## 1
Amino acid sequence: MAQRAVFLDRDNTIIANDDHLGDPSKVKLLPGAAASIASLRRLGYRIIVVSNQSGVARGLFDEAAVESVNEEMIRQLKEQAGAHIDASYYCPYHPDAVVPEYKLDHEWRKPKPGMLKAACEDFSLDIAQCWMIGDQPRDVAAGAAVGCRTILLSDPEKQMESNENIPAITPNFIVRTLADAARIIVREGNSPNRDPTPIPLAANEVPTPSPDDATKTLSNALADKPLPDVETLAAAVAGKITGPASEPIKPVLEDILQQLRSTHRNNDMAEFSLSLLLATMLQAVVVLALAVGAWDGLSAIHIVATARDPYWWNYRILDQLTALEWLGGGLILQVMVVALLLWHRNKH
């Protein structure tokens, strides 16, 4: 069965890096990256990282360093939001490499689409349902070459690479952050693939929607704002939006509403966990066991020697052993509670 995926560039898309990075201790996730990836994964998208790593070809570090950086990135993503990366592909080759074995204009080096093609074969992807997100034109070119939709992350304060060998392809969307891109994918996920739509790069330049195209108006309005909540959209679909533009808008609203309801439903289900329920019940038993053990321990202390009862010491020892049994059982159950809580945390 064909699957869908979001291809992500690594540097300045997921992690902050304006240079070649081979030191895992310098890995720093961009704000909102982990939550955005987790949200896309919950929507059913495979998350696949595709990055050029010419630092290997330039002799700055080896492939083991690239893998270490990727592993640290994956660890931080999971730690921050439980985000999961399905696969990481990288290209260590460069035509002007100083390391001879990496001196090659390889098919995996973006803007060539080799990494994306390999991922499509490995995961049986339906490329028409896939997205490519990156901060450079080469990312857009690689995505467009295989036929998936593309999103360019553009920060007006940073200089974008200029290379005459990279095809001048307009992305489908241009936004500032990965969180904005995730909102685009939520909104457009079930829509058919369309030709790229030109959007200005200037920070203060906002596209002006056509007054005759109500659907485009809604899309542009949502592009830079948080998605409305379910109740607002439900009211809109129910007919509270009036006027000549209401009919073209409703199909788009219905699509967004359906995806938001699905996401909210998944979040609500995630809040209930059998492991948490068992942990709560066991914790109550732990408290009871510790209380009984403490009671038996105190009872043993109060047993003293009497002339009429020569076996008083036997009763004291029995109460002490009983107290130890209750306390030991309570500690074992407490360890089980901690294990259940850790399992729940790693799962979610």
Note: The chain has three domains: 5-205, 211-271, 274-347.
## 2
Amino acid sequence: MRWRFKTVLIFIFILIISCASVGIGYIFYSEVIDKSNVIVDGDLTINFIDGDTFNLQGNATITFSVTNNSEEAKYYYIQLSDVYAQDVNYELTSSNNIDITNTLKSDIISNQIAIASNETTNYTLNFTSSQNNKYSGKIKIGLRSNEENTFADVLLTNNKVSEAPLTNIGSAATLDEGLLASQDDLGEAYYFRGAVTNNNVSFAGFNWKIVKINGDGSVKLVLDGILDEISSYYTESTNFIESDILTVLEDWYTQNLENYSNYIAYYKFCNDTVLETTGTTYTSYNRIVTNKIPTFVCLGYSENNKIGLLTADEVMLAGASTSANTSFYLYNSSIETPYYTMTSAKNENGLYYPFAVNADGALIDNISGTLLRGVRPVINIIKTAKVTGNGTVADPYQIIMN
């Protein structure tokens, strides 16, 4: 009996050890599957270092990376799904300066992120819960079709479009009002207003600001500064196409942008030179100064060109008023002289006064076009252009050169 009892005990002990070993093996295997999940989606490799499924409590952090293995830029989305959470927030940061915060819920964090050829982007997802709550969910990342990735597509994906501004048009916009919907001569347009920080572009060796998505899908840029050469607006003809300032612009274009002309669209620049019946002010003066109803629809004459200037309407819609504004995106502290727009203001005593933008960001109408003032070029990027970047100063949009 004692031998049989010892045999049973030995058997049970061996069985327990064996089961424990199997259990430990299973737990270890489960940790590998849950904690390190590598997924290949076309040319993208997504490494969920801490797993693509989370079940956490309180403050926590998980990390993952996305690698583009192809020879061309790609685009992808990041999504949270199957989320169960209450009073939990998250912040997603990345090695290419993405920084997105929101309440934790099932949602698309970003629908279209660019990644350059052979590049790896590392992500950190921080969760915060002041009540030490439990929460769970899944991270999904997937490749998007390149057919949907024009410059305009990326801008619309990366920005929430608002139908109305936060401040009255004609008042100084000092807050980040984002991207707003409007209309221009070519259809549905979208423009940036206020203290936006994600409308930066690096192109042809210069820094630019995005003004708007045009109705035809091209994208309007303004140089983030003025030219070294100052210029009068006119000597004899006040028409933009015959003006002194256009000569300066075209010379600069030839010297600096000619090699990039395949990416720059011919576009209709609005030269508003329709006089009121009084003969001293232009219709644009009443529209801008008196009534404060700027528009992207050209109510004057338009000139088809590859380079031009801002209109007073565009400046006011961007956030300027007739008072100083040093907070909206067109203001640049390095600009120390007023610069001309293409929009007419007054014609007094035989002198032509185009609207100009003062060094303090105010829209002004008291500078004769015969005086030497700043020149701030505007171009339009073709609607089929593709880009990388996210529009921040640290990672500006850059045109993909074919």
Note: Residues 154-399 form one domain.
